[in-house]
Amino acid sequence: MSDIRVRFAPSPTGFLHIGGVRTALFNYLYARQQGGKFLLRIEDTDQQRSMPEFEREILDSMKWLGLDWDEDLVHQSKRLDRYREVARELVAKGLAYEFEGAIKFRIPKTEVKVYDIVRGEVTYDSKEFDDLVIMKSDGYPVFHLAVIVDDHDMGITHVVRGEDHLPNTPRHILLQQALGWKSPKYAHLPLIFGSDGTPLSKRHGAVAVSEYRNKGFLPQGLVNYLALLGWNPGTPQEIFSLPELVKQFSLKRVIKSNAQFNPEKLLWVNGQHIRAISGEDYEKQITEFWKEKSHSPSKELKVNGASPNTNQFPTRGNWGNPDYPNGKENKSQDRGQDKIDPVPEEKWRKLITLYRPRIQTYGELKVQAAYFFASPEYKDLQLMAEIKNSASVVGLLKQLGEVLEDVGDFEDVEMLDQKTKQVAEAAGLKPKDIIHPLRFVLTGGTASPGIFELMSLLGKEICLKRLKGFLD
RNA sequence: GGCGCUAUCGUCUAGCCUGAUCUAGGACGCUGCCCUCUCAAGGCAGAAACACGGGUUUAAAUCCCGUUAGCGCUACCA
Predict the structure, then answer these.
(1) Tell me: the pLDDT tens digits for A107-142?
(2) Cβ contact A35 with chain B strand, < 7 A
């Protein structure tokens, strides 16, 4: 146990976004590793823009990410009297003065040294600073005042925040000195940018934590990726659980330069986590995820509000795949006759196992496995024509259909394998000469898990129906 | 404009403090190969970087100076 106390201080003027999470995460990691406290403060002094919904959203996101905090929330809106008191004290001491209804802090002209844990010593000359408004004419404190008062009252020992606050720090130090308060230690984190080098914003795609949650990212995947943006352990390890991060984190190893957010690597990290967690956790999580997403059968392919083509991710399964490009316009109603959803538990279990190595987010499952939930859509007309115009392939498929009629149920994957290959061999062809067309018939595409597992899962009835439907 | 921060493969980064072990290492992505019924996953291989210019030194990615570029701050936003 140490007496280290850090805080994350979001403004409830929007959703918790990627940059905020990174700041929160580094504070959290530092506190947990040092055995200190991680506090949460809501900076809601901007009356116009602060909304309770946003606060709820931020708190929800923090919980989902597993960044649990200590002690009670602090709301700046409930501490207005305290800020006024401090401002009055400054005025009484002659260190601040009224100006057009506001109160301004008189900046002492001096050299101010900031000792930053990640950047070292940075020197400012306060001659460059104008006197600082600390209380607005509406009686509300300005950010600078509220921050130093709260940090002091909350006993904050380390302020870990974005680099954009570095130039504010000397002003804060001056304010602390005027009040006779000890300054906390500072650590300024590099900023996160989009792929075009500009600050991360909606233009760059998903920035809100909730969007990642809706797409089926794992909290530990997002946390893991963000931890690597601006920090590294100095070892080749890249995949970490939250406890591992806590163990290895160090402010000393925080990078100084700004970083670009790379959605592709995030996807990769998330995929690694999908494969790293226990089978039980995987089943529980992905099932829960899809349970929440599928309230009505007709919504099945919608992949939530996060329709595949509006996200900025080159997600496998929808990228460049014209089959199921749009959640809103899906044709599942028209093609619903093969619907096998709700999927029996046993089938669902097999299905998610089949797709575990193929998905990078839980949201990808039903995009990639769409043909399990609706009839396949044969978009590649050329390929379809090729198959239909080949007398030998059509004959092969017909024959296969007949052979499969006698197979019984499709539980025995090995049996399906043997029978199918026998049909090909009897015709003097290679197994793949029948497997590939068969895959197209059954899925409408050219990519899928192993064909025999697929057949078994789809079941005899649907396989034969699709086969006949295709050949008619 | 002023002040400040930063600068290694396309991207995230190791190395820089304590100069020689760096013909610069890893990861994502990309390419090829293996595996294989396709797609993945997995394995292997490859292309790909020390911003530029000066110093200091026997020796510089590493130290110093300058330039350039990017970013931040310069609000009665936070």
Answers:
(1) 999 999 999 999 999 999 999 999 999 999 999 999
(2) no
Residue A407 above 90 pLDDT? Answer: no
Cα separation, A359 vs A356, in Å, equals 6
Is beta strand A37-42 parallel, antiparallel or unpaired with respect to A5-8? Answer: parallel
Q: With a 7 Å cutoff on the CB, does A436 touch strand B? A: yes
pLDDT reading at A258 higher than 90: yes
Nearest residue to B6 via alpha carbon and C1':
A257
Residues 141-170 of A with CB under 7 A from strand B: 142-144, 163-168
CATH topology classification for A211-279? Glutamyl-tRNA Synthetase; domain 2 (1.10.1160)
The rounded distance, in Å, linking the Cα atoms of A433 and A393 is 8
Q: Residue A104's beta-bridge partner residues? A: A97, A133
The nucleotide lying nearest A136 (C-alpha to C1') is: B76
SS3 at position A464 = helix
DSSP structure class, residue A14: S
Compute the 3-state secondary structure of chain A and give helix, strand, coil in percent, each to the nearest 5: 50, 10, 35
- CATH 1.10.10.350 maps onto chain A at 283-471
pLDDT average, residue stretch A43-53: 89
Q: State which fold the A5-193 domain adopts.
A: Rossmann fold (3.40.50)
Q: How many CB atoms lie within 10 A of CB A278?
A: 8
Chain B footprint bases within 7 A of protein beta carbons: 2-8, 10-15, 26-29, 37-42, 70-78
CA–CA distance, A383 with A437 (Å, rounded to integer):
9
What the block records as the tokens of A105 is 């802090």
Nearest nucleotide (C1') to the CA of residue A44?
B78
CATH 1.10.1160.10 domain residues, chain A: 211-279
Distance CA A189, CA A255 (A): 8
pTM of the model: 0.89
| Mean pLDDT of all residues in A458-469 | 94
**DSSP code, position A227:** H
Q: Which amino acid is at A318?
A: N
Question: Does residue A379 lie within 7 Å of nucleic acid chain B, judged by its CB?
Answer: no
The answer to whether some atom of strand B lies closer than 7 Å to the beta carbon of A276 is no
How would CATH label the architecture of A283-471?
Answer: Orthogonal Bundle (1.10)
CA of A278 to C1' of B17 (A): 42
Counting Cβ atoms within 10 Å, is residue A101 exposed (0-12), middle (13-18) or buried (19+)?
exposed
Cα angle value A275/A278/A284 (rounded, 5°) = 100
Strand nucleotide closest to residue A49 (CA to C1'): B77
Smallest CA-to-CA distance from A228 within A190, A186, A188, A277 is with A190
Query: What is the rounded distance in angstroms from the CA atom of residue A70 to the CA atom of residue A75?
Result: 14
ipTM of the complex: 0.95
